[in-house]
Amino acid sequence: MSTVQKSGVAALECQDLRVTLVGAAGAVDILRGVDLAVQPGEFVSILGPSGSGKTTLLRVLGGLQSIAGGEARCNGTAVSGPPDGVVTVFQDYSNSLLPWRSVRRNVALGIESNCSKQECRERVEAALAMVNLQASADEYPWRLSGGMQQRVQIARALAMRPSVLLMDEPFGALDAMTKASLQDQLQRVQEATGTTVVFVTHDVEEAVYLSDRVVVLAGKPASVGLSLDVDLGRPRDQITTKERPDYLQLRHQVYAALGHEVPR
Ligand SMILES: Nc1ncnc2c1ncn2[C@@H]1O[C@H](COP(=O)(O)OP(=O)(O)O)[C@@H](O)[C@H]1O
Ligand SMILES: [Mg+2]
């Protein structure tokens, strides 16, 4: 069952968004005319060629990147700085964990200064349980595999009880088995918590498998080239979902939008 609420104010919204970045060649429009609305509880993936502006778009939504035109709103309010309840998970988990802190204390990092000790403890334990990390709570992150380190970063985000989770290729550096397992954990947690998720990936199968909607950035400067509803029901399964004709059809459409030649 999906938890998407289709009426009311969008959790995140861009209207005619324009973003300009200054590089060696001067100021360049990276995004122009981006229109996007993400509903509360929706899981939206963002795909696009490398360098198309996926990370830039996520940074705008997270209040980390200023805009040159148009609008970016979170729960109806213009974004100016990181909005309350919006948490970003980066691909590079190794640099976001503190090596001198145990897993448990890394997970507490985002809440320890604004929660009571008791509440902090409860939230940390609940977040560790959501990603099956209780047994490693006293370990140090550098002693863990890449997949476990990424689970620590996700647990830290979950402990903050975000209403919106922004994820930038969070499983990009992991092997296929670990990736599939984390996809399923994320799926379970998202269904249980109703968190809105914007998930940047370059993996077409991952995007279709996880999402309520797949958005493909296209063009230079980029805008939304395709927005595709994924009506595959939930829960999903790595084997049976990926065998469904409608899954294969969606996958085909996304590859085509990314400019892959599809043989007849
Ligand atoms: N700080 C920056 N200054 C100038 N150009 C940048 C900066 N960061 C990224 N870019 C350029 O903006 C474009 C989009 O980058 P990015 O959002 O990281 O793309 P993606 O995440 O889709 O790979 C790229 O062409 C990149 O070279
Ligand atoms: Mg990127």
What are its keywords?
264 residues, alpha/beta, Rossmann fold, 2 domains, four-stranded antiparallel sheet, 10 strands, 25% strand, binds adenosine-5'-diphosphate, binds magnesium ion
Descriptive notes:
This protein is α/β, with parallel strands linked by helices and 264 residues long. It has 2 domains: 40-67 and 77-85 and 162-264, 3-Layer(aba) Sandwich (Rossmann fold), CATH 3.40.50; 97-161, no CATH class. 33% of the residues lie in helices and 25% in strands. It has 9 helices and 10 strands. The chain has helices spanning 54-61, 93-96, 103-108, 117-130, 146-159, 176-193, 204-210, 240-243, 245-257; strands spanning 12-23, 26-38, 43-47, 69-74, 77-78, 86-89, 164-168, 196-200, 213-218, 223-229. The strands form 2 sheets. The chain has a 6-stranded mixed sheet, with helices on both faces. It has a 4-stranded antiparallel sheet with strand order 2-1-4-5, covered by helices on one side. Strand 4 (69-74) and strand 5 form a beta hairpin. Helix 4 (117-130) packs across helix 5. It is globular, with a radius of gyration of 18 Å. The chain starts with 11 loop residues before the first strand and ends in a 7-residue tail after the last helix. The structure holds adenosine-5'-diphosphate and magnesium ion. Magnesium ion (MG) binds at residues 54-55.
Q: What order do the helices and strands come in, and which of them pair?
A:
Layout: E1 12-23, E2 26-38, E3 43-47, H1 54-61, E4 69-74, E5 77-78, E6 86-89, H2 93-96, H3 103-108, H4 117-130, H5 146-159, E7 164-168, H6 176-193, E8 196-200, H7 204-210, E9 213-218, E10 223-229, H8 240-243, H9 245-257
Parallel strand pairs: 3-8, 3-9, 6-7, 7-8
Antiparallel strand pairs: 1-2, 1-4, 4-5, 9-10
